[in-house]
Amino acid sequence: MNVLIVIVLIVLNIQARSFKQILVHFPSMAYASTFNALYYYLCKHFLVWDFKSKYLSTRILRVLHIFIATPLLVLLYLTKFPSTSRQQIQYVINWVIASMFFEVVANKTGTLYFNRGWNFGWSLLLYIKMYLYSYFFRRYPVLVLLMSIVTTISALAIFKVPIRKGFFYGPLLLFRNK
Asked: Which chain regions cross the lipid bilayer (predicted)?
């Protein structure tokens, strides 16, 4: 299912001719992927959602979603973003509804699971945030980064993500005091 999602996103991006706009939307794509990766880093010992596959390892699935699916999704979303306010609101609503539909299917088929109080309501908020922040990132990057930091810290507190001694093991080990 995860590979199918990537294939569908590639085909839809080809049909929309969105790859021509990749340089324009790259900062927003990188922003969304970075915060997706940050989730996996900050919550590595306390995941609230994750992907499963019978055929792919968890690491491959995460790389697939962080570096391919998320950027392709954001690119497709931003490529056809309408210019009038009324159309923009409906556009965001449509994308959130479509994303929720695919999330429900992924959850029902067992390729996506929830833990520790995460549910479809939280996913709905995450999609709204992802789509709005991705759109506004190009115009107001500092503001969006500050809002992202605030919402990330809030989520860590709401879900009581433990920060332990071993938290810095991994990529940040180089910066640890010896």
From this structure: 28-48, 60-77, 89-106, 118-136, 142-159
Tokens at 42, concatenated: 């900050």
Strands (E), the chain: 49-51, 112-114
C-alpha–C-alpha distance, residues 32 and 22, integer Å: 14
pLDDT in tens, the chain (178 residues): 888 899 999 999 999 999 999 999 999 999 999 999 999 999 988 999 999 999 999 999 999 999 999 999 999 999 999 999 999 999 999 999 999 999 999 999 999 999 999 999 999 999 999 999 999 999 999 999 999 999 999 999 999 998 776 666 665 554 445 4
